[in-house]
Write a structure and sequence with these properties.
globular
């Protein structure tokens, strides 16, 4: 057996809630540079208002990371990390930690197992609720990751708190919820791609007795979930990133952002940054789900030891 054994008493909803947030933060710490590279590649080529005379060109994942280190310093890879961790503690705790509880609500009484419909509805529900609560942290995270240093070293924001204040002052409180609709759509899709796929792959492996409920099983299920989530969510993710990073007046609405990207780059534009997206989302899912499973078991064992 690899890792902790499943506890006899299943973890409570509270344990899952805090385990999910903590596991997501661990995953973010491990994969944040890849997420930053993904954001830079996704916004590359968009028309900025005001126009910038000097534009840094990024090529590929490693090229983007090396260019950022060379032109902005190593710390730029973790720009927006504070907002990212704030986002995960509020966002992942809801969308992942409450998934099992909501899934049971959608499961008919007396059913022997949970069907696909109940899983999809649970994923969409927790994803939408999580975005509604955590959207401001996501806006600030994207702004920091997309923020290229100016020639004189000036920055768009001086810190996380300053970013919240500046956006609220210059764009109104609604600015903190910029891109909420595409983000809700994205995370409903991502939640289904991640949680439902992970759920289904894990159940299939256990029922077929190909693997036991341990780390290798969690790794395979998480890797498959990361790939599926990237394929289905990448188009929405690109539009979301561009719209959330846009300045006032750059796009009239989400639809104008979508059409502008389509006219400028074609269908391929919706898969800009796909490789770093998959590297990030795939590795993020592996680290998060393995950590999540183990943290739940640690919490359940600690509770059992106290009782």
């Amino acid at each position: 057996m690899v890792g902790l054994k499943p506890p006899e008493v299943p973890p409570t909803a509270t344990m899952k809630f805090f385990s999910a947030g903590t596991a997501a933060c661990i995953a973010d710490l491990c994969t944040f540079p890849l997420d930053t590279a993904k954001v830079r590649l996704q916004i590359q080529g968009e028309v900025r208002i005001p126009r910038s005379s000097s534009t840094v060109e990024y090529r590929g994942v490693l090229g983007t990371l090396s260019t950022m280190v060379r032109t902005e310093g190593p710390r730029s890879l973790y720009s927006g990390l504070v907002a990212g961790l704030q986002r995960q503690m509020s966002f992942a705790s809801i969308r992942i930690g409450l998934y099992d509880s909501v899934k049971q609500l959608y499961t008919p009484k007396g059913a022997e197992s949970t069907g696909l419909t109940a899983r999809v509805l649970a994923g969409c529900t927790t994803g939408a609720v999580a975005v509604t609560c955590a959207q401001p942290t996501d806006v600030v995270k994207v702004r920091f990751q997309a923020n290229v240093a100016l020639p004189d070293g000036a920055r768009r924001y001086n810190g996380t708190v300053d970013a919240y204040r500046t956006i609220a002052r210059e764009e109104g409180v609604r600015g903190l919820w910029r891109g909420a609709l595409p983000n809700i759509a994205r995370n409903a899709i991502v939640n289904c791609g991640e949680l439902v796929t992970y759920d289904l792959i894990k159940d299939a492996l256990l029922r077929a007795q190909l693997m036991t409920d341990n780390l290798p099983c969690h790794f395979v299920a998480a890797f498959g979930a990361g790939f599926c989530a990237t394929v289905v969510a990448s188009p929405v993710d690109v539009v979301k990133t561009r719209y959330m990073n846009a300045g006032p007046g750059q796009y009239r609405n989400v639809l104008s952002c979508f059409l502008g990207l389509l006219m400028q780059d074609g269908l391929a534009g919706f898969y800009k940054g796909f490789v770093p997206s998959f590297l990030r989302l795939g590795s993020w899912n592996v680290v998060m789900f393995i950590s999540y499973e183990q943290l739940q078991r640690v919490a359940a064992l600690a509770r059992a030891a106290q009782s």
